[in-house]
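the three lines:
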Amino acid sequence: MIRRPNQNRSIIVLVAPAFIFVLVFFVLPLIFLLSQSVLPGDGGFTLTGYADFFESRVSRIVYLRTLKIGLIVTGISVLMSYPAAFLLARMPARRRSFLMLLVILPLMTNAVARTFAWLIILGKRGMINQTLMSLGLVETPVRFMYTETAIVLGLTQLFLPLMVLPLVSAMENIPDDVLEAARSLGANRLTTFVRIVVPLSSDGLVLGATLVFTGSVTAFVTPAILGGSRLLMMSTLLRQKSVAIFDQQAAAVIAVVMILTTLAVNLLLRVGRVRQV
Amino acid sequence: MPHLEIHDLTVSYVKDQPTLERFNLGVEQGELLSLLGPSGCGKTTTLRSVAGFIQPDAGRIVIDGRDYTRLPPNQRDIGLVFQSYALFPHLSVFDNVAFGLRMRRVSRNKVRSRVTTALEMVGLEAFAKRRPAQLSGGQQQRVALARATVIEPQVLLLDEPLSNLDARLRVDMRQEIRRLQQQLGITTLYVTHDQVEAMSISDRVVVMNQGEIEQIGTPESIFAAPETAFVADFMGFDNHFSAAVIALRDSKLTVEWGGAPIELRWRSKIGSPQIGDRAEVFFRADDASLTAGRDAHGLAGEVILSTFHGTELRYLVDTEIGEFSIMQDSASERYAPGAAVTVQPHTGKWIAIFGEREQPA
Amino acid sequence: MVSRWMYISLVILYSFLIGPFIIIFMASFGANANLAFPPQGFTLDWFANVFERSQFIDGFWVSLRLGLLATIASLIMGIPVAYALTRFQFAAAGLVETVFSAPILVPGLVIGFAMLKFYVRLGDLNVLTVLFIGHTAILFPYSVRVISASLRNLDPNVEDAAISLGASRLRGFLLVVLPNMQAGIAAAFVLGFITSFNNVPVSLFLSGPGVTTLPVAMFSYLEYHFDPTIGALSTLLVIFTIALVQTAERLLGLSQFV
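prediction for all of em together
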């Protein structure tokens, strides 16, 4: 890139409309939200909203549950994606592009539709219960709905593609030569995978983990349908506070905690990635 | 008066660290002048300033007596050829070449005839309907050349036009560019970091280093008689040592070589040398030879390494004043590593240079 | 390097990714109203129900219009930003990039919630306007990123070549840059439209009386009804999405891009 005559004026003209739009309609609302979380109705500044949040047993449980579910979903996604991604990355281009399309397709369908399937699978007369009962393993339906398991399954299905895609693209960049070199130097398959493939695809792993984790801890539709008001996560708690209980300050506090959590995860993993390089 | 004049050109990307400072250059009508230097020496900055893509902090660009300095790049009458070819990927070869003429609102018939002529000149008339992606690198660069010259610009600028081509094609294209340039008689500024390329294509060469002109002259004069250590290094003088001047006579000076005096040509940018000054002496690997054994007259040394280069062998010889690289005909006597030899100077092409470093305080 | 357990894991992965869609598909033709599986009998009643319910039909048109308008708006404003980011070097580039990627970093539900609280103060805006503004803002990261990628693929010297041949900067952009961005713009368009069309969390708070997007309508329906209607609608949406992507691929050759 080269400096050009009058470039500052050009840049301002190009960037200003969108910049102002995002500033007014996106950044300002967030600043307003932040102010709502620390300003009580009668003026002044207070952190009681945050104190209330962290002192309340319910919200503490919900917050920790959200983080726990996020970690589990991320872990399962990694385990399910890693070997498969390696295989996908080594496939002939045509077969791979078809299979990758199948990974992308779910991303193009809305979360309500994708979560709906779990009602059929996990419901009282759902697929699993019917199977268990017909096999005589249980006599009355087992309750899967409104459990952490249900939410974990739903979220994993929802965010799995976000782990597969970056992993495949990272693994595509590992040349076959490198793997052959490792084998020729005496490494067996497992060692090669652990010592060569894993480190060389760690960028994709970190990116995928960031996307899946932040997606899981902030998702709304899936916890709302599969957890309902009986098993709250941060997002469903936020909606409950705002719409059902009308405690706007508490809702604002939850919103800010959610933002800070995702930012922290993003920063943490980014720092980790930089250090590795 | 030169056709293209650059007066006191100053450009800084970083404040107070000018890439070019008060840079002056003139290119004569119909001349091909090369700017030669390592990356970061300011050659591309100079070219882009002439093209108008860089607004200089100070200085003037004058072409054919007209001040171009404040003129936007699209109103300058300049043809530009890029290292990356920069062809328009969505347009056919014909439309690529026609682009500049259409911008100038040349009539449809004239566009057709001029583009056809231009494509004939670069031997691509059969490819008019192809897209750039369907052409080889050499063909793409020919299209770029036709596109830049069909508008009959005042000045043609070429920015490392051959760097993306492979070695053999580069030689062909070099000749092609030179032929076209002479046929059209177009004033040309040619930027390159390849000294062989600059030597073979130019009327005059400007060797640049850190925004300054080190030397300007015909390829022959620069090749034979570099004026600075930088140019000598850049022109492939493989060997150098420093020695005290022990005598001065006419246009020559004398230094010691293995106990014996040798007489050398010299160049200085800091006035005439005095007896006792230190000279930097440069010579090429093929301007010395080896004889077996330690000779009382000549510099004794020991062969460290020999490498085979077809008709020649290159020896690395360690002596008391440093290591030298010497080329020998492979038909002549061979020396194994460890052999004692004497380095015989062929001083006709050697040169002693006095640079700023030796200037007394 | 490839071993059998990798194939097993591939099969597990794909049954997890695609299985739910097959189950939805089967259930949407089943006659039982209580989401029992495997479905009994065959009926098209649930598809009929989709078309009888005004919230779905209206929601579809709202989502369609919203998706198109917000995507176009985000492209019109986003293309110049991508151009500035890829063609100029400037100190504030990092800030600009951060601001335009921020909508991806902030949870959708939080965005919707914050926008609701704020836009209410802006005055009496109509619901569709509010949705349009919100969706446009959240689409910027996609349009700026995809367009930037397509601009990075185009040699910047191409524009300089056009200018040196006599084109003004604007003309150089229109004649040389824009035609080479077609695939990038199409990719950004499809991505933006699908993102907007599927969005729930932002729309959830911004939807108002009488104006609801399709996914929000689906979500609300599920809060009160437990029958395969949503399955039937989902089946239709999957077909709609595949058709959309296929058309875009046919017309514009997206796969070279995404």
